[in-house]
Design brief:
The protein is of the alpha+beta class and 296 residues long. It has eight helices and 16 strands. The protein is globular and about 55 Å long. 4'-deoxy-4'-aminopyridoxal-5'-phosphate binds next to α6 and β14.
Amino acid sequence: FDQMQGKIWLNGEFVDWADAKIHVLTHGLHYGSCVFEGERAYGGVVFKSLQHTQRLHASANTLDFKLPYSVEEIESAKAEVLRVNNFTDAYLRPFAWRGSEMMGVSAQKNRINVAIAAWQWPSYFDPEERLKGIRLDIASYCRPDPRTAPVHAKAAGLYMICTISKHAAESKGYADAMMLDWRGRVAECTGANIFFVKDGVLHTPEPDCFLNGLTRQTVIELAEARGIEVNVRAIMPEELDGFSECFITGTAAEVTPVAEIGPYHFTPGEISKTMFEDYIAAVTPVSAPQKVAAAG
Ligand code: PMP
């Protein structure tokens, strides 16, 4: 990443990738006062761009700061980042943090900084490969009680337990970890939401202590449009035995089938495949195939 080229938008200006630096005494680094987004552009169009920018604002407000750029300004900055870097299929990382003016828990007057980075990340949708499914461990950390942390914000600090959990899972050979919540219910993965299938019905946990992902919301809409019933409810880990399929959803993960969660096994099947295909169709801009056709 250090050697990457291109431009990063930093507080309203474009800077070279290597020059996008912050001071070591940044409040966001010491006290976790940082919020971020993860977005994907397909064929030059950011999927659910506005909703991501609105979520960035909402996350900042939850952490008691206000972004110095409006939703419209961030929307046009994101488009500029793609244009300046000449990206069409890319991952975007807008983020905002308290600066380095004052050190201490209280930092009311510290500057709120905003940056937007992007890097090329085409979505390789080889259905065969995806349908093998990934293996998940069960994390020992739990998603916290909403009284313990601002669980609905996409706040950097909440990812501390995600990184620890993902590293622990990876060291045991798993791709990721599924986290339970503080009540012992199934919650989500370290960067994605989770769905299960039983008798043709989708089951997914109520997002009452974790991010209600935009991909999750899209998949629910797509399932309902196909007449697939979606049951949003409390799911206990003991129930995993009774599900036939499982998949995770997120901007980065898109729709990724799961083959194993600890001792439980699933067979990625028709519903996972359908949701995966419908999601790819939903994120693909209508103009994309025409552009290819025109170029060809
Ligand atoms: N949960 C967590 C912890 C995440 O980091 C993400 C990715 N942003 C999600 C769920 C899925 O959110 P989205 O579908 O909006 O990317």
